[in-house]
Amino acid sequence: MSLDINKISVKNSLSSCFGTGLDSISGGDEFLSLLANHADEVNITADNYLLNEGELAEYVYIPISGSVMLERTASNGSRQVYAFLFTGNILGLSTSSIASYNFSAKALSDLSAIRISRQLLEDFFRRSFEISKKYHTRTEIVLSAMLDHLFVMGQRTAHQRLAHFLLDMENRLFCHKGQYNLPMSRQDIADYLGMTVSTACRGFTALKRKGWISIASNSLITIHDKDALEHYITD
Amino acid sequence: MSLDINKISVKNSLSSCFGTGLDSISGGDEFLSLLANHADEVNITADNYLLNEGELAEYVYIPISGSVMLERTASNGSRQVYAFLFTGNILGLSTSSIASYNFSAKALSDLSAIRISRQLLEDFFRRSFEISKKYHTRTEIVLSAMLDHLFVMGQRTAHQRLAHFLLDMENRLFCHKGQYNLPMSRQDIADYLGMTVSTACRGFTALKRKGWISIASNSLITIHDKDALEHYITD
DNA sequence: CGGCAAGATTGATAAATGTCAATTTATGTT
DNA sequence: AACATAAATTGACATTTATCAATCTTGCCG
Predict the structure, then answer these.
(1) Which residues of A sit within 8 Å Cβ distance of B?
(2) Percentages (nearest 5) of helix, strand, coil residues in chain B
(3) Which of A147, B20, B21, B29 is the most buried (most CB within 10 A)?
(4) D15 C1' to A12 CA distance, Å
């Protein structure tokens, strides 16, 4: 199956997130072309699951359009959202090739993604050490991002965590003059940051009152004072 | 330099921790022997740092005796402890070969560790895909453990997190009839679990009052009712 | 063995966050 | 545009956790 590589955005290469730019794992165009010739394209509609925790981890995915949320739900119903992934991010990194997925992936919007068999990926790695190295460096970057998130979760207040999240999204989403659209609900944000929806809402309100952000239509966020936010999250 | 491989414990292979058993990354004895012939041994005394955040990441370490704590301290003094590592655990996994350490490693006790150059490790990987695969599977297991910890941090109360920690330590430390010695201070535990020392202490007291644990001498813990603890942490 | 210093525990209180219900606002449909 | 529905926000109150100081315990060292 053929695929137009140019469709894959290389934005979102930054910071505390699971996936980062596809560009960063390529061993030059050679790798991308290789993948493109062996990748399927999958499409699912909003609110459906691309994969489920516990399923045999057969594929790695890269969203072409739309966004995805990685999550785990416990038996008592509590849910932790692990990450939000956007176009060009890689999904499936954290799963060993012999094991099953340790999270579920839910589409936040209608989604197109390319899908590469882990077996095939492994064959590429076997043939090219350089490609293997790029890919594994990428995994290590994800681990590093997890450390950042863990720090914030353990050492910051609910409102600070929210401010941190908004700055992170400003880096990763398409943003014009400090304005961007959040693709996830308040509940998703709350479950990502380990707080209730009420607390998340009060956080938004608090940041608005300080004049650091404004909210036009629930999902449309404008950052007015990035410096203040950055200072706020470090205490 | 020569090294007695038998000194390296293969316990601690379980659960939510950074490093896990060295056995799991070996490509059979061949790999261990290879490393042993190229490894240095380093020794440092309790409370000193094996490596510091920001330093060029030149080595991977494996403690032979003693234990280590990985941590990050922010400019305002708040500290997140990322992991406790014991003998046989691998230290340095989460750092890309071209970057610097993204945490510091502090000895909890007098420590001996073997030290392998990342450059050398990479040479091994280049030569043997199988060794590379084992190593990177190990990294993915660490990432998976981080997800477990993140879930607990985001979705559980302070006392539940403490109970979870005590069960984890029971798996990983030398334990006889439910009794084991914690090598870290209350402050370290609190910083690992994202709470204050006071809250950690109250947690210990609460678990004692329920009759699920007892504490002989601050560091000597006995688990009396593992089932109750396991039920407690899932709500 | 006694005394000291550091670490651990507890108490009183304040602050942060959760709970649950009411209300408001946004979104999608005719 | 009006409605219906779901999502977001807020208020009142309960619970959890932090803060800070006092007290107790442990481990260490002479």
Answers:
(1) 72, 74-76, 78-80, 82, 93-98, 102-103, 122, 125-126, 129, 132-133, 136-137, 139-144, 146-147, 149-151, 153-155, 191, 193-194, 234-235
(2) 40, 25, 35
(3) B20
(4) 40
